[in-house]
Amino acid sequence: xxxxxxxxxxxxxxxxxxxxxxxxxxxxxxxxxxxxxxxxxxxxxxxxxxxxxxxxxxxxxxxxxxxxxxxxxxxxxxxxxxxxxxxxxxxxxxxxxxxxxxxxxxx
Length: 107
Fold this sequence. Notes:
It comes from Knoellia aerolata DSM 18566. This protein is an alpha+beta fold. The protein is about 30% helix and about 40% strand. It has a 6-stranded antiparallel beta sheet with strand order 2-3-4-5-1-6, covered by helices on one side. Helix 1 crosses helix 2 (about 70-85). The termini are close together.
């Protein structure tokens, strides 16, 4: 049976996306277990999913959750820490909510 997923993303322009991703994952990795495939690292925060993707001149953060509270938690955790690490460089995380998508319930 399909269920609704809430998603949000933030594209943070930086000349050092790999460095900021490494710092963010190392810091959060003390409490979260990230798996990395290619340029994307993923972790669960409660029932929500956090993704960090290294791009060319951009670090993309993505939050996915079945509920508003989970989405807000991922946005807060990823955004607050990245802005803290990138304060000197003036990094600003601006989340963009995307329309709800239907996903199949895991079997």
